[in-house]
Amino acid sequence: MPGGKSSGKHPHNLLFSEALVQPKVTATQGTSSGSASSPATSSPLEVTGRILQKIAAVGDRLETMDARISDLTIASSSIRADIAGFRETVHNLDQHLTSNEEHVTALPGQEAELRSLQTKITDLEDRSRRDNIRLFGFPEHKWGALILNPPSKLYYPNSQTAKNEEINRNIEYLIDEKQASIVTGKLLYQRVAV
Questions:
Q1: What is the distance, to the nearest Å, from the Cα of residue 47 to the centroid of all Cα atoms in its chain?
Q2: Residues whose CB is less than 8 angstroms from the CB of residue 155 and which lie 6 or more positions away in sequence, other chains included
Q3: Phi/psi at 133 (nearest 5 deg)?
């Protein structure tokens, strides 16, 4: 390699060629530095020793690089495993999120249906309470007198034969609720006399 130029060869060949090419010390340089005993050229053993030192240094660097590369390989495989775990976790979370979104979009309709059903249940409960109370034998035109003087006995006709059974579900027009002590009977499966 004349002039230190590489002709497309590997970099480690440059180290070898640098060790071979040493600047020659001329007699004028040797005398100017004051050392007359230094040789002008190196012996082949010295050149070989320098080459071996450079090769050993390159070998040490390669071992260090191999250790670093193996550490990086282990770290990258660990990172890949973590990324695969994260992908699975994200996929599971995506599925849960999709199912939750479906439930959330269905909630307003279910809430409206629940309100409607609650209204129907309240109405049915109110109707069942009103249907359990029947008043018999009270003429419609004498409410005021009956409220002040309640009858001692009420007439309980058989529901199959009674033609003029009067069921009054609204007693809002009573004069005074504190004075209204009307005796009522609950209709269950049998009629009970009070």
A1: 70
A2: 136, 137
A3: -110, 120
- Is residue 169 within 8 Å of residue 118, measured between CB atoms? no
pLDDT in tens, 4-47: 444 444 555 555 555 455 444 444 444 444 444 444 578 889 99
CA distance 113 to 108: 9
In terms of C-beta distances under 8 Å and separation of at least 24 residues, what long-range contacts does 170-173 make, across chains too? Answer: 173/143
pTM of the model: 0.32
Distances (CA, A) of 128 to 122, 124, 132, 135: 10, 6, 6, 15
User: Which phi and psi (to 5°) does residue 159 adopt?
Assistant: -65, -20
Please write the tens of the pLDDT for every residue from 175-190: 444 444 444 444 444 4
Within the chain, where are the H helices? Answer: 11-20, 27-33, 44-132, 143-148
